[in-house]
Amino acid sequence: MELESHVSILNDYSLEMTAKERPELDNAAGRILPGTQIAVAFLPNEDMESRIAAACHVRSLGFEPIPHISARRMRSAAELSDMVERCAQYAGVKRVFLVAGDPVRPDGPFEDTLSMLRTGVFESNGIESVGIAGHPEGHPIMDANRLASFMDRKVDEIGARGMASTLVTQFSFDAQALLDWHFSLRERGISIPVRLGVPGPAGVRRLLRYAAFCGVGATTSVLKKYGISLGKLIGLAGPDRLVSELEQGLIAERSDNLALHFFPFGSLGATADWISTYPHNKGLAA
Predict the structure, then answer these.
(1) What are phi and psi of 116, to 5 degrees?
(2) What percent of the chain has pLDDT over 90?
(3) Most exposed: 51, 230, 282, 286, by fewest CB within 10 Å?
(4) Could you tell me which of 40, 154, 137 has the C-alpha nearest to residue 95?
(5) pTM of the model
(6) Residue 24 pLDDT exceeds 90
(7) Does a structural domain hold residue 285?
């Protein structure tokens, strides 16, 4: 029973990288399942050429590239069109992940993901699936009702344009928060694929730094359950307990619409190794 549940959430895992992490991907490639979805983050300190080159590199290694596109960092409609067209043409991109982005004031004409979707640039370039963000621990500027309404509008817009939707959550240390959010979606009748965000194994200080930056809950009790002690910030912490709790909480879930998305935080190799050696997981990794 546990093994079946484990396979359903981990066998189709996805990963995240930045454009500059191509060498790390080269080193880890042999330990990552062929065809794995690998998202290329949209960082402000990386240029468009690097992002497109990274998507091409992901494809060349036999994986499925998913470029992130930040609405408020797009300087023009032409820049958006150029990125999507080149990713589709040169990297065979069929999936993208859209975010609003961090800037308070947009760098160009796009305020949010809906405004990018309404250009028609994605379906016109053969994009088949659009990922949008899920927020199990809430959103810094939207209340729960507004967040749910905005999610519904995005899903409807994507579907109306003939594309599929996927929800990918921010990473979390809290299995219960992820489970509660997932089941609340299903109770609302939302059945689109979901990828629950999980941190890869990393240094404790690095994990806490990313948690603070991303607004991820890191209370003493949540961290203790995850395996982190605030009195001991040296060393590595892995998601073993978190994934085990998710397995137990999802034991009745028999769906191809649920998987894990790993945030390696610069440690693609360590994350690939963890996946291949996680208990009950022998034979799932390449």
Answers:
(1) -70, -45
(2) 55
(3) 282
(4) 40
(5) 0.87
(6) yes
(7) no
Count how many domains the chain has: 1
Whose structure tokens read 């992130």? 68
So what's the pLDDT on residue 136?
Answer: 85
CATH assignment of the domain containing 79 = 3.20.20.220
Q: What is the pLDDT of residues 77-116, one digit of tens each?
A: 999 999 999 999 999 999 999 999 888 899 999 999 999 9
Q: Return d(Cα 286, Cα 271) in angstroms, integer.
A: 13
Do 68 and 42 contact (CB within 8 A), yes or no?
Answer: yes
24: containing domain: 2-277
The Cα 185–Cα 63 span in angstroms is 29
Residues contacting 96, CB < 8 A, separation 6+: 66, 67, 68, 69, 84, 87, 122, 127, 129, 130, 131
The C-alpha atoms of residue 107 and residue 25 are separated, in whole angstroms, by 30
Position 286 pLDDT exceeds 80: no
Task: Give the integer Cα–Cα distance in Å for 249 and 182.
Answer: 11
Query: Does residue 6 lie within any of the structural domains?
Result: yes
For the chain, give the mean pLDDT.
Answer: 85
User: Of 196, 194, 177, 112, whose CA–CA distance to 138 is shortest?
Assistant: 177
